[in-house]
Specification:
Blueprint: E1 2-6, E2 9-13, H1 20-24, E3 32-36, E4 39-44, E5 47-54, E6 57-60, H2 65-75, H3 82-90, H4 94-102, H5 113-123, H6 128-142, E7 145-147, E8 150-151, H7 156-159, H8 176-187, H9 193-197, H10 201-208, H11 216-226, H12 237-246, H13 259-273
Antiparallel strand pairs: 1-2, 2-6, 3-4, 4-5, 5-6, 7-8
Helix pairs in contact: 3-4, 4-13, 5-8, 5-11, 10-11, 12-13
The protein binds a DNA duplex (13 and 12 nucleotides) through residues 27-28, 120-121, 123-131, 133-134, 171-176, 178, 212-218, 221, 234-239, 267, 271.
DNA sequence: GTCCAGGTTTTTA
DNA sequence: TAAAAACATGGA
């Protein structure tokens, strides 16, 4: 997508679907908040970002050309042509088309793999407001201050020597021991996040599930949102309901190489538009 | 007080 | 093996 430097800001002129609210509030990331109408503030890749949308323009405040190219263009997946992908997905069935059309501006973020892993460990048997709270406290307590009240996501190294008691301020419950196991195994490369990038996806699945507290669902979320493996297909309670009601008999593989994108549209659509009681 | 939340592990039959 | 129960916490 085309962008320009205006004063000290980056302005994206959207030629492809991109809705900031839909993208940041569809349950794939937990560190951005809407601070005013259409304006979001948060942290990713150790950088504080203020980003807002005005129709087809998206403005990244005070962002340099270098940071935009190296960090944010990749984070917001700006090189992928979602129009083409959604056109293909919509052919799958009428329900798939409905899901694509419900929130057409969703893009799959390319987050930091470790942050995605840790975030979705915290997400298990939990609700989104509380997930955000726990992650926020994790960053405040163990990350580095970046700007004002904004903190970086702590690295495995920052957590590896802690004990469960040290994580008590997070109020993460039984997930604390999982966070620590993940930090240790990623730090000592028992689970090598670099190698996972180039692994066959089934090997990557086995690798990630070496971590205590990481099962199929957390694993798929990590692969999709942290490694940008767009064929990964997280099956949570919502997706199970949706598959049964809207895609009976289908499996994730049926959706093809961009199944993960299909999943995100279905997930958001099911949570916000489908009444499963009828 | 009960139920539930983008699940996984542990226990039980 | 497969199905329950347990796991912390907090809001509805």
């Amino acid at each position: 997508m085309k962008f320009s430097l205006v004063d000290d800001d980056i302005v994206i002129n959207c030629s492809e679907p991109f809705d900031l609210g839909q993208t940041l509030n569809c349950g794939q990331c937990f560190r951005f908040n809407e601070v005013s109408d259409g304006c979001f503030e948060g942290v990713a890749f150790n950088r504080h970002l203020v980003i807002s949308q005005d129709n087809d323009k998206i403005i990244l405040k005070g962002v340099s050309k270098e940071d935009f190219k190296q960090i944010w263009a990749k984070y917001f997946d700006l090189d992928l042509e979602y129009n083409n992908i959604k056109k293909e997905l919509s052919k799958f069935s009428d329900n798939m088309k409905q899901a694509c059309d419900f929130a057409p501006g969703i893009r799959i973020l390319y987050q930091d793999p470790w942050e995605a892993l840790c975030s979705f460990i915290i997400s298990q048997n939990n609700n989104i407001p509380r997930i955000k709270g726990i992650i926020s406290r994790l960053c405040e307590n163990f990350g580095k201050k970046i700007y004002d009240n904004y903190y970086s996501f702590p690295e495995p190294e920052d957590l590896k020597d802690l004990c469960e008691q040290d994580l008590a301020p997070l109020r993460s419950g039984f997930r604390a021991k999982y966070i620590l196991d993940a930090a240790r195994k990623v730090y000592n490369k028992e689970v090598d996040m670099q190698l996972i990038h180039n692994m066959d996806i089934d090997d990557a699945r086995i690798e990630l599930q070496k971590i205590n507290g990481v099962g199929p669902k957390v694993c798929e979320c990590t692969l999709l949102y942290g490694f940008h493996r767009l064929e990964a297909f997280p099956m949570d309670v919502w997706m199970k309901r949706a598959m049964k009601a809207l895609f009976p008999g289908n499996t994730p593989e049926d959706f093809g190489p961009f199944a993960g994108i299909a999943q995100q549209y279905i997930f958001h659509y099911s949570r916000n538009a489908v009444d499963f009681n009828v």
